[in-house]
């Protein structure tokens, strides 16, 4: 998926950085130890004695070393002592016995937090706990978070530099910062507290997690994606994963500053969003597909009616005329499920101008392609795949999952007639996220779908800190296949200027 290609040939071209083979050591080079062990040569041989065969040269054996172990995740802040958690447990129990929760629920969050802090201060004074001022402030914040928020997760949710929060049972909490995983000193009182916080999160969106329904997808109020899997399926305690959303919504201009795309490439993407191209954003898990989809939707006209379909509502569109739809799982009786396909079908009866599917995972891809091909130009969706060519193959396989008995050529003709552009996002091995391909779906030659790359990301090497170095370059396509569409919207001059600037930069 990396590197420059003209027409995508379907090979997943992951760059291979192969070190040059070390030169073979000269034959005379023998370790000193081996020389020391060699038998001494006699001073002279009597003429009558037969000549003995020469001793074979000592064999030098190369030590075979095991591959290095994977580096442990970086350590975060120090862990708190057991005495701290014992004190917190005693104060928390006393607080629950003292406070009137029904009256507390009537207060706004700030007033409730102040009320709790006052009561906790009184409890600490009465029980005469020996604590420093810093420890007392930590304890106050922790207990307020336990009662009013998400407990130990609150300080992590408040940080905007964290991309993922991974809780593996009550004792192990990991975070991802700048593409790298770190361990934290945060822990939960026990597995029951962790499960209670998970239930508090999922209940806000009308879902539940317990032994009878141990798997649940949900979201936080800010749109962060949440997955919970509880015992008995999670053996070592409840596993909670949160994919955080930044409070400040990213734009294409910010992606340019981060190096995810070049300024000229960003201009091409803006034009693609503006001229109502049907776009599929392809990429692996954590590659930034949803972020990129949010960025592209910024260039949709404000007077268009947009309908979004998602498993958990994550998209943060800025337009005023947006209808957000969300799937629903089965209830305890196994009924009431509303699938993504049901939502996409219903969209067609809601007079949409653009349909945006947060993530295409199954047969709903056929309904999305039908919508793209029946007057809903500018529709968008994301698909898990590792290259533009693989994205096309996945769409074929997902249509087959729906039970459609269509000839292969017919399925490919539907895809070619519906999809205009595939944008490939990737998360590189140094943790950075890059847009590696902007690829057009051109047409068919026989039974083969023809694509052409407009922009590709070439990796040139890495710096002394291990960060990959590369650049976005034009493949020399002067007039993309959507040129006439750009002319229809009056954007052909901007498109030509961006492509020409990218080509000069590559030269």
Structure report:
It holds the Pfam family T2SSE. The protein has 507 residues and is of the alpha/beta class. It is 34% helix and 20% strand. It has helices spanning 32-37, 82-98, 101-104, 109-127, 133-148, 154-158, 191-203, 252-258, 263-274, 289-297, 340-347, 364-372, 388-401, 408-418, 483-488, 492-506; strands spanning 74-75, 162-168, 172-177, 180-183, 215-219, 225-229, 239-243, 279-283, 306-310, 322-326, 354-357, 380-384, 421-427, 433-445, 448-462, 468-474. The protein has a nine-stranded mixed beta sheet with strand order 10-9-11-12-8-13-14-15-16, with helices on both faces. The protein has a seven-stranded mixed beta sheet with strand order 1-4-3-2-7-6-5, with helices on one face. A hairpin with a 2-residue loop joins strand 14 and strand 15. It starts with 31 loop residues before the first helix and ends with a helix. The model is unreliable at 1-50 (pLDDT under 50).
